[in-house]
Amino acid sequence: MTKRYITTAIPYVNGKPHIGHALDYCLADVCARYYRLLGDEVRFQAGTDEHGNKIFQKAKELNIPVQEYVDENTEKFKDFIAKLNISYTDFVRTTDETHVKLCQKIWERLREHIYLAKYEGWYCTGCERFITDKEVEENHGICPDHQKPYEKLEEENYYFRISDFKEQIREAIFSGELLILPDFRKKEMLRLLEESPDVSVSRPKSQLTWGVPVPNDDSQVMYVWIDALSNYITVLGYPEKDISEWWPAIAQFVGKDILRFHAIIWPAMLLGLGLSLPKVIVSHGMILADGQKMAKSIGNVVDPLEVINKYGVDAFRYYFLRHIDTFADSDFTWTKFEDAYNNELANDLGNLVQRLATLVSKNQIILNVPELSLDDKYKALMEKYEFARAFDYIWEKIQGINRKIDEEKPWSLAKNGETEELTKCLNSLVYELLSVNQMLSPFLPETAAKITEIFADEVQPPAAPLFPKY
Ligand code: MSP
């Protein structure tokens, strides 16, 4: 059985989940369910990023002990992932004792590429990132994402010698050995890599206490990204366990805003450890509200639970996997969401299932459906991580079945007593629907299971519509 490992970015737990966080999980889940459908064994990591200044400061502001604060928020993320019906197999918290211990061992293994030096430069706590002079100049000293002035730092900390691996990383990205999707981001990352200096990988304890202690140096804690990126392998037990069964990951899902960490620091860490690079890094776009960034200050943040509680998890997954482009920035608006729900889920799919099940059951048709097999075009799109396009393809098939019913008019065959023709026609329509349903199952697992159930043995139309109209 082929083994495949899939990962998601671990969100900072400095608040509750918002709809932007859903994308990593939904994309990775489709990928995991697809490979399971092919019969592969899949390990699927999720987790939470719990260290760093951003979280520490937020807890302080709220006057809550920081461990208590991260415990509370982590539960909210776990609930959220469960509500999204995400089929993860492993969950890692960066405050887990095991993670901390393994992370320190990783540091020790990278030690020969790490040196102590003075850092004189800038930092953005919102981004949890060291900022170059060039960026500070370009942005006139203010972080465009967080609207806060960059902090000036003058401190002694450890540096990771990225320069030891630059050439190897460049070659891997350029040749596609480490595939970065979409392609235009690959060029962007190659440019960034060229400009990348060695990176600071620790902070003095006097500046930050909430982090993984640097081994053999009481005065420093690890930079949060070193700790966070390690999660992808500590969750498999590295370096105490042999992870070669699972590593390298076939796909790592991240947002475009954090691709730089995954395309530069992460490969350098892996090469320093003597591990292979992941096969693919899939970087998705941002979810916007009416073309604008979602932010509490603008008041346009959409609570994902509000959507799921009203319309159900599959309606949420439907919108996020089909109408949110897999790679580009896309909009969420209630109007677009409700239109897609009523016209596509309720009309195209819900009505089709209802109509077909009613025709089969009313005419007491005996179904004899041949074994299903996956369509090559669908497989090709799924394996290129073109999930939204694969979903469009599924939808064309659904609309095709609806057209076929209208053309073949099985109700007329029934009325004219053409039983043999009617049986043939309905069997073929149900076969097409079940084939589509198999392709649909990684996207809408709950709905696909219901459809399978409806057409198993004694066909009964669903008592309530699959997607009640609003
Ligand atoms: N903690 C880091 C990730 C460490 S991975 C080793 C982080 N956390 S985050 O909470 O800011 O973001 C988590 C994920 O959610 C990232 O992939 C990020 O791109 C994604 N999104 C956060 N807001 C988003 C949108 N509005 N739209 C789409 N995805 C976005 O970065």
Write a structural description.
The chain is of the alpha/beta class and 470 residues long. The protein has a domain at 333-454: Isoleucyl-tRNA Synthetase, Domain 1. 49% of the residues lie in helices and 15% in strands. It is built from 17 helices and 15 strands. A six-stranded parallel beta sheet has the order 3-2-1-11-12-7, sandwiched between helices. A four-stranded antiparallel beta sheet has the order 5-4-6-8. It has a three-stranded mixed beta sheet with strand order 14-13-15. Strand 13 (287-289) and strand 14 form a beta hairpin. The chain is elongated and about 90 Å long. The mean pLDDT is 95.
Small-molecule binders here are:
5'-O-[(L-methionyl)-sulphamoyl]adenosine
For the record, the CATH architecture of one domain stands as: Orthogonal Bundle
Strand order of the largest sheet: 3-2-1-11-12-7
Q: Label the overall shape.
A: elongated
Radius of gyration: 25 Å
Keywords:
470 residues, alpha/beta, Isoleucyl-tRNA Synthetase, Domain 1, six-stranded parallel β-sheet, four-stranded antiparallel β-sheet, 17 helices, binds 5'-O-[(L-methionyl)-sulphamoyl]adenosine
What can be said about this structure in brief?
With 470 residues, the chain is of the alpha/beta class. The protein has helices at residues 22-37, 53-61, 66-83, 97-110, 133-138, 166-175, 183-195, 224-234, 259-273, 304-311, 313-323, 334-362, 376-383, 387-408, 410-415, 419-440, 445-454, and strands spanning 3-8, 41-48, 90-93, 114-124, 129-131, 151-160, 179-181, 199-200, 202-204, 220-222, 251-255, 280-284, 287-289, 292-293, 330-332. α8 crosses α9 and α11 crosses α12 (334-362).
